[in-house]
Structures are given as structure tokens and as C-alpha cells.
Amino acid sequence: MSPSAVRTVVTQTVAAADRGKPVIDANGERIATVQRIDDGTVLVDPVPEIGPATTRALGWTDDHDDLVPFRPQSIDTVTDGTVRLESNL
Hints:
Layout: E1 22-24, E2 30-38, E3 41-46, H1 52-57, E4 68-70, E5 75-78, E6 83-85
């Protein structure tokens, strides 16, 4: 790898450093933003436009006024810029 090459780190675990990253569904749509991690639970702020099918698939309520917990098993990859969800939600 050349010194000028950009290296992208890919994992399946959200860490404190991922705060502020967008959560992207399999269609490339932003559905939430990582806000914080409390005792190992990832809390996200869903976008207001999220559809009911996605909300149900993720186990979230329809009330998006609060932060909601995010199931780690829903994650496909975490990169330097995004948290991407599995395609089979």
C-alpha cells in the first residue's frame, strides 16, 4: 500500500468513536445517527422519515422523540464513515 493510499477499517462493532456516524440501510438510505453507547448498548437517533416497515424490522417504536437502542446483530459493517445494516432485516 502506498503512503498516500487511504485505508478503510471495516468491523461489525460500534464503538464510542462511532458517535455521530450515520446508520445506513441496505438501500443506502440514512435511517439514524449513532448518538452514544451506554453500558454496551448503542443508542441511535432515528430520522423522522423512517418507514414503518424498517421501524418494525429493527424493533423500534413509532415514537422517534427519544434515542432508541440498536441491535448489534443488525449491523453488516462499520467503516470510517458509516454504520451499514444487513440487507435481510
